[in-house]
Amino acid sequence: MAADQEKSIIELPTINEDLVNWAGYGEEQLSRVVITGELFCHGDRNHKDLVHPLPVSGASIAVFCGTSGPKTRKSYAMGKTDGYGEFHIDLPSHLHSIPNLEKICLVKVLHLPKTCSCRHAFTGKHKGIELTSIGEGIRTYTAHKIHLLQKPAKRHMNRRAKTRNNV
């Protein structure tokens, strides 16, 4: 009897570990949801950068997911753009079971590096996402390309202000 009891006690951690993994909380992820996109900066309107935008690296990007109404529940995940202006953000596991994330998730640029001369072309707005692939436990969504406009130079802003005041 004591030998049987000792054997079952030794096997318990393995059983618990298997249950934890089976429930999706173990070391190995059972599913993954990734949001991708690209961030570009358009230069001066009189310059060729308007046609050929430059990638923005080091920008902070966030994915906000949630519902509105009396039981509002929001979640978010953050990431940064790489040297090519691309971002890949893994969503938290509690959002993996939601089938239509494109209906409740939005992407927003939170912060631009000091060296970036762009401003948001969609000030105050978020960018929606679209499902691009499903397979092998991975769902991938994209925000496609996010385009930002260059900040107007201070001298242009002063000139505009003077023109408005003189009119």
UniProtKB/TrEMBL annotation:
Pfam families: Pollen_Ole_e_1 (PF01190). It comes from Fraxinus pennsylvanica. The lineage of its organism: Eukaryota, Viridiplantae, Streptophyta, Embryophyta, Tracheophyta. It comes from the Eukaryota. This is Uncharacterized protein.
